[in-house]
Fold these 3 entries.
Entry 1:
Amino acid sequence: MANFAKASVPQFAVEVYQNVHLPEGGREVNAVVTVTATGGAGEPVPQPSRSPGSVVLNGRSPDAAVVIMVDCSGSMDYPPAKMRSAREATAAAVDALREGVAFAVVAGTHQAREVYPGGGRLAVADAVTRGQAKEALRKLSPGGGTAIGTWLRLADRLLASSDASIRHGILLTDGRNEHEEADALRASLDVCAGRFTCDARGVGTDYEVKEVMRIASALLGTAEIVADPAGLAADFTHMMEAVMGKEVGDVCLRLWTPLGAEVLFVKQCAPTVEELTGQRQEAGPRAGDYPTGSWGDESRDYHVCIRVPSAAVGREMLAARVSLVLPAPDGSPAQVLAQGLVRAVWTDDVVASTSINPQVAHYTGQAELAQAIQQGLDLRKAGDIDGATAKLGRAVQLASRSGHEATAKLLAKVVDVVDAANGTVRLKANVSKEAEMTLETRSTKTVRVKK
């Protein structure tokens, strides 16, 4: 039987934005689903029965568990300030832990090592354990290689010892994953996906941006560059405060489709572009769950595309039922938190059937913007000047149209903008590594459409 912690589920609301009209024979239905969570609703969050050895506080499990993974490879000694900043940042994150949260610190090199508390367990945050953890951090020193998959697997084992509803990792690296095959990291991400979320940070400018983004995307966290190690403490504090603001974990977006309809794709489109289609888990006849991770007070947008059977003018059908669900840990029916409907209506009104919903159009452009930036930077690295110019020019045009001022400023550090409206640009001859890596890291960040 499920235990019920004192934590509460936020109030969830689902809004569906779409053009419901299709031309005769039309089959593709697009919709933007806005999910908003506000405050605790007072509903108890189901918790699984405690496993032997799990962390317990005052007779109940902590509501959150966090593992901080710190890169301690040899490259962290160049310059020495990098390792010192990493220790200080981890100490700042420990200070930001809420009373009673379960936590651990892991040192990562070509292997993973428990720094605190050790013994394959988690500590419970209070004045004493915070002090002990910060004292243990003083002993961290750089040396060895980098095998990030081993760090993640140790974090997974530690977090599995807790029955907390929020399980989260924070990972810091400064270099490439050179002591581990790409398939090994991919396998580790597959194992950890759905078991905990993870924010990934790259410090300096010598790491591989795509690796950091891949980790964050697979584990439903955030990715960011901290080019100057001096900024780590503030970033780690902000990350930990965000984790402490989460109220419920393991929420899924469930799509039910009628007979003959199929889901073509599901993407998160705000606050970042994230592909969720491949993470579907079957949830009964014609239903599938797409993970969304942990929630606090926040709002996110999802783009769903459904292929429906063609129909004659005048017909109407339910294309999909979209639900926010909290799967029960004991196998009983999931708790439905909110619900919305995606519809299809066939019409011979050309104006109605060819109109594109503003929200769908906006996020389609935002997804193209992210892709254009990433392709443009890849082409630039490969020496294809014409291809890079065309892609980055298109990115400038899309950023200008959507009012994405932050991305436009980052693009201006890589290209000289001649005409933003038409996407006419020239590649800059000299571009700093920081500017290029920052643009790539933040390429998936989106601006919300005004509804």
Entry 2:
Amino acid sequence: MQMKKRLALSTVIALLTTSILAACSGKQADSGGTEGDAASPLEISIMSMYYTPEPPGPDNVIVKEIEKRTNTKLKITWVSPNSYADKVNVTLASGDIPDLMLVDDPFTAQVRTMVSQGAVWDLTPYIKDYPNLMKFPEDTWNNTKQADGKNYGIPRVRPLEGGGFIYLRKDWLDQLQLQVPQTTDELYTVLKAFVEQDPNGNGQKDTTGLAVFVDQQTMQWMSELQNSFTKTKGDWKIIDGKLVNVHLLPEMKEALAWFNRAYNEKLIPEDFAVLKNSQAKDLMKANRAGGAQDTVEAAWEPTEELRKTIPQADMLPLVSLNGYVNRDSGFFGMFVIPKTVPEDKMKRLLQFMDYGTSDEGSDLANYGLKDVHYTEQNGVKISTEQAKKDIVAQQAFGQIFSKYDKYLRAWRVGMPIDVFERNKKIIDERATRSVPDPSVGLNSDTNTQVGTELRKKIQDMKTKVIMGKAPISAWDEFANKLKNDPDMIKITNEINASYQQRLAAVN
């Protein structure tokens, strides 16, 4: 009976060339053959990014091991994230697209055009056959769908929970006998104490409450603190079934009034409008700031530095404020397969990526070989010096192969187990109340054309109000003009039309 089952399984694998069960059970994945020849390695060209000082070379130990286990021959074009968007544009325009190409933004005009022209594979009918890919959260697949409700790529999966939010000095809270704040009003009280009650104990009033900084991608500051007032992630909120821009809501005025008070009472840095993330971290590491905004695991970075001289130092990521915390999109780009790739090879590329999202494939890509590139302590993988030498990291091949890990943003190298376990509990609690960005993937041609300029005007006005260069009443006048601005009206109509189209496609 057991032999018959094995024969039947082998027949199915040979016919469909999609099963990854052998690879998942620790055996070599049968993804070999260029087209119809399962004995020879499958040649795969890939374009992806890397965050390590230098990219893995073709003879890299992990690249060679993955080739061995998947019976493939890989030709990888590694591109720095600093120039990746430009490289994507040039590659898409050339028409000479690799078998698997990471597009960091699935919703650019170029990608939408390629989809509408049928230049990339619609993977919707196929992905159900790949069990590891199907372990991605439903949000991840939904958020990478195009307007027609179909998936044209394999998401580079990321956690839904644990994204950027406020974290505070827990040891300062304890020292001043303060509770962890649950609301923005309670947060204000805490920050005021951080500034006025000498929590670093040097006898000087040299501390700030929150190290507010400018996000260099969005050009916004402390976005999640603002969102704690509007109780939605991003610039749009669903009200009565329609998307409304948050800058037209009274809650935005409340947020600006809060920031204006905080600025006047020096609870945030005077130069907040130009402060960078690295400078905010420096304030934290110098024992001069009570909190900042970052991902759950990133709060360990300043903690680790401070503990060299202050053993009790502790940065605590907050669960939520005003009952709100953000939920991320669950992806960071996706890998598209051009329609020039034959269907048979496309399926085997899916098989290759399915292996990459198995425990074996993902661990190999991100951590390498056990007892060579990592050791295991209390269930946690600790990288060795050899891992650095061999460029083994999530920032390297882990940008291509990675399974869904709910707790990816709970751990950093060097973190004590008690901090890791606390971070996991915080992520679990956030999952019970997190709010997503409802505008992910929605399209507005007008926003593509004038959105950047419009957002700059909004941000400039916010800064003026916060710094007192314009009275809070001036925001009412600005918001009223914004509501009647022809471009804003067009963007709102187009965003809502795209939203309704997506709802209809999904339902």
Entry 3:
Amino acid sequence: MNTSALAQTGRFRARRVARGSVTEGAARAGLAARGVIYLLVGALALQIAFGDTKEQADRGGALAAISQKPFGAVLLWALGIGLVGMALWRLSEVCFGSVGQDGRSARKRLLAAVRCAFYAFVAYSVLSFAASRDQSGGSSDQQSRDATARALEIPAGQWLVAAAGIAVVAAGGWIGVRAVLRKYHDKLRLGQMGPRTRRLVDVTGVAGGAARGLVFAVAGVFAVRAAIDYEPDKAKGLDDTLRTFADTPVGPWLLVCVAAGLVLFGVFSFAMARWRRV
């Protein structure tokens, strides 16, 4: 067997492992872990809407809430490991492509790489929290302000922050539009769902995806504003972004709707963990 044949055989075996049951299990565990985080963030945002302003409606607040429950440490480690699985699944998509006709395209691989990096960071933060049980890194709001301030200090930092904010706005719009158009149908095993289940998944997918996209877009707007005004304190993390929905003319009810949408997205993530094609 020549070197070319050996290399081809090695690639085939690696691709088979990437598409095998281990990677599938990692993907489904990661989607379920994402669902837990969004459920908790949405629940914390609902508490804020109804007057409880003590908790942070972000990932740190969600982890703190888990840590206070019975077997909280075990749950935190399980959540972190699940998110590691999500990152590894996205890495396999970078290397071997994802499901779908254009799954091996450069665009899909680039998106997978971005998602891999994002979930690797989230997994690291969750596992760090599980190991230390404190929030020494600060809230998402403080982290956003600190990162913006550091970025503004470098050459062309104002342009970089503005570009990043615009990218986040665009990502939010992309997430919301795809949810409303039900693009997730392409990735679901619809044949395994009954009509009622499919309707429930559509409710959670459309409403949850729209709410998630809206939160991303508004956070991006604040980043652009911070760049234009050269004021890092105007950048907002997830918690402050959610609280701004309560400061609109309709009062806390807009925050209630967005928070409920985030809860629905958490439920939708569980549906994806069950029926998504990996």
